[in-house]
Write a structure and sequence with these properties.
The structure holds two protein chains of two kinds. Chain A is globular and about 40 Å long. Chain A is mainly beta. Chain A contains no helices and eleven strands. In chain A, strand 4 and strand 5 form a beta hairpin. In chain A, the strands form two sheets. In chain A, strands 2, 4, 5, 6, 9, 10 and 11 form a seven-stranded mixed sheet that branches. In chain A, strands 1-3-8-7 form a four-stranded antiparallel sheet, with no helix packed on it. By secondary structure, chain B is mainly β. In chain B, 0% of the residues lie in helices and 48% in strands. In chain B, strands 2, 4, 5, 6, 9, 10 and 11 form a seven-stranded mixed sheet that branches. In chain B, a hairpin with a 6-residue loop joins strand 4 and strand 5. Chain B starts with a strand and ends with a strand. In chain B, 38% of the residues are buried. Classes of the chains: A mainly beta, B mainly beta. At the A-B interface, strand 5, strand 9 and strand 10 of A face strand 5 and strand 10 of B.
Chain lengths: 117, 112
């Protein structure tokens, strides 16, 4: 059974940093691209970042470019999202999602990030 | 960026009746590999999104056959043949043909 489990969410002050982790199980982790998608309270879905299976290619949304960095450690079946210079508008539930070509097929339960003073 | 526009934004439906959601894309979703990567997600209250349909019309594993997808060009549709109580939630179309991946605004399905 494919499972994704996020961790690392919490309350952080504006300008602060946080690192999210997502551990995958039930599949050959290193052969799949992984994504981060976020959802602000009561709002829709917003794609954040993607990293290919081997980690050689990444892409970020313009809204987080230069502040967020996606990375992965396939030996630990884990994908990360390093978030710096956080703003109030980054407050959201952050989901990691596995990608098979052209679709996000499995999603984690999400990690809540709250940016507030 | 590709803008996906869903209609309606809210859909009150009687149990056992059909429901339909439209998703219109601002541009072609044909990927460089020739495929159209248009998917539909369901998000039940308090739950993460769940994949229902991918590549316009392929039903994901475990998804009931009352859910179907269709479309071509820039117009796509999700249909539920007979709505059940467990179908309540928000439905999103999403495209992964072009970066950045984008989502429709969501359509809230509720029971009359």
């Amino acid at each position: 059974e494919v499972q994704l489990l996020e961790s690392g969410g919490g309350l952080v002050q504006p300008g602060g940093s946080l690192r999210l982790s997502c551990i995958g199980s039930g599949f050959t982790f290193g052969t799949y691209a992984m994504n981060w998608v976020r959802q602000a309270p009561g709002k829709g879905l917003e794609w954040v970042s993607v990293i290919t299976g081997g980690g050689g290619f990444t892409k970020d949304a313009d809204s987080v470019k230069g502040r967020f960095t996606i990375s992965r450690d396939n030996s630990k079946n884990t994908v990360y999202l390093q978030m710096n210079s956080l703003r109030a508008e980054d407050t959201a539930i952050y989901y990691c999602a596995r990608e098979t070509p052209g679709t996000l097929d499995y999603w984690g339960q999400g990690a809540l990030v709250t940016v507030s003073s | 960026d590709v803008v996906l526009t869903q209609t309606p934004l809210s859909s009150p439906v009687t149990l056992g009746q059909p429901a339909s959601i439209s998703c219109k894309s601002s541009q072609s979703l044909v990927n460089t590999d020739g495929n159209i990567y248009l998917s539909w997600l369901q998000q039940r209250p308090g739950q993460p999104p769940r994949l229902l349909i991918y590549k316009i019309s392929d039903r994901f594993s475990g998804v009931p056959d009352r859910f179907s997808g269709s479309g071509a060009g820039t117009d796509f549709t999700l249909r539920i043949s007979r709505v059940e109580a467990e179908d309540v939630g928000v439905y999103y179309c999403t495209q992964a043909s072009h970066f950045p991946y984008t989502f429709g605004q969501g359509t809230k399905l509720e029971i009359k």
